[in-house]
Write a sequence for this structure.
């Protein structure tokens, strides 16, 4: 494995921790600032909206810049934003810190996906993206439970100080290990840091209907899973009957599912992107329905948490690879747009789930709304599969190139 992939995975770990750890700490944050669950949830939705802005506008602004310096600048935003959140004395300051940190998220994963794909042979591009996203899944298995435990023991701000330190480590790793465009660069380096053709060239990708269908599938499928996951701490304590101290360890179960799903999904997507996506999305929709029906059962909840993470994140490498396939020679902005789509789904799912709770439908309501969104994703994915160009009947990342 190229060491550059390891550096990108460390960055993904820190960013994933920033995004997801607050879900386990939401009750503590809400109590500290004296706000309702739904208002506290805006720290998640607001983050997701800012990710969309960063993914689109920062990626667009960086289309003519070397990718390594851009990645480093994005990590500086990450460090500053998390430090601001950790030092916050009011809800508004915490939200500002979340927004600053979020601006780096989409562009980092969008550019990082292109860089990661360029470090591996064409037939292993989905697997390379999965390796980078392993940092994100590791954040859920190791970081989120530990961060939740740390926040419960020493205050939630302590968790964000630790995340800021991880950002410093990630910065050093990318600086040292990700190849840049230098004289005498290796083939891998040249592939990693090719000079893109500019914004107008990158916008060509959005002429393809399959790119728009892929973005829609990403919004709905990811929104379905994370709309349910946003309020999972309440589901676990208020419906399943687990004590609040058990939440960090239950998140380990969910995170383990993410890791397994990410690895298996990446390998399967290298064989068949669309087939993998159809299976994962259909399974996720069914799992969310069953979860909503049996959430009062502790043992069933543990199993379904694992399956929700596994099938939900099993689609991620395929979703990211698919849009790069149909973007063709202009993958950078399209890749960033797909990261934005992940977070549009995150914000939409959290918002709809919060509305359902506020309407008095109970703490299983986000599972039902998540199932509905995922079912809609399955419909769109089916349409995308049936209408794809015949020359791309079995798209794989080998058909795409990272050259902008």
């Amino acid at each position: 494995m190229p060491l550059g992939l390891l550096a990108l995975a460390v960055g993904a770990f820190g960013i994933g921790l920033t995004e997801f750890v607050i879900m386990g700490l939401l009750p503590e944050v809400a109590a500290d600032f004296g706000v309702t669950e739904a208002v506290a949830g805006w720290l998640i939705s607001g983050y997701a909206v800012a990710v969309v802005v960063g993914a689109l506008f920062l990626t667009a602004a960086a289309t003519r810049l070397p990718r390594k310096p851009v990645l480093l600048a994005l990590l500086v935003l990450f460090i500053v934003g998390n430090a601001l959140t950790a030092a916050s004395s009011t809800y508004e300051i915490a939200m500002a810190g979340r927004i600053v940190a979020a601006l780096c998220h989409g562009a980092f994963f969008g550019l990082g996906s292109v860089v990661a794909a360029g470090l591996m042979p064409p037939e292993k591009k989905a697997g390379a993206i999965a390796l980078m996203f392993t940092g994100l899944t590791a954040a859920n298995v190791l970081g989120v439970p530990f961060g939740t435990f740390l926040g419960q023991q020493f205050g939630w701000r302590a968790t964000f100080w630790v995340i800021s330190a991880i950002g410093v480590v990630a910065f050093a790793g990318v600086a040292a290990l990700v190849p840049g465009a230098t004289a005498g660069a290796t083939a891998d380096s040249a592939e990693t840091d090719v000079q893109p053709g500019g914004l107008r060239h990158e916008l060509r990708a959005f002429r393809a209907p399959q790119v728009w269908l892929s973005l829609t599938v990403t919004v709905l499928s990811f929104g379905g899973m994370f709309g349910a996951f946003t309020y999972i701490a309440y589901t676990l304590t208020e419906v399943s009957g687990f004590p609040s101290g058990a939440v960090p360890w239950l998140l380990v179960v969910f995170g383990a599912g993410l890791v397994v799903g990410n690895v298996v999904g990446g390998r399967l997507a290298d064989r068949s992107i669309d087939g993998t996506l159809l299976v994962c999305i259909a399974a996720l929709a069914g799992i969310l329905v069953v979860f909503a029906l049996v959430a009062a059962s502790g043992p069933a909840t543990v199993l379904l948490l694992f399956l929700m993470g596994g099938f939900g994140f099993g689609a991620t490498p395929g979703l990211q690879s698919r849009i790069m396939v149909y973007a063709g020679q202009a993958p950078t902005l399209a890749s960033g747009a797909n990261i934005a789509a992940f977070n549009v789904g995150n914000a939409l799912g959290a918002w709809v789930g919060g509305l359902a709770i506020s309407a008095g439908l109970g703490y299983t309501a986000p599972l039902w709304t998540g199932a509905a969104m995922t079912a809609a994703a399955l419909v769109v994915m089916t349409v995308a599969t049936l209408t794809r160009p015949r020359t791309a009947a079995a798209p794989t990342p080998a058909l795409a190139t990272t050259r902008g």
User: Anything to note?
Assistant: The mean pLDDT is 80. The CA atoms of residues 42 and 231 lie 12 Å apart.
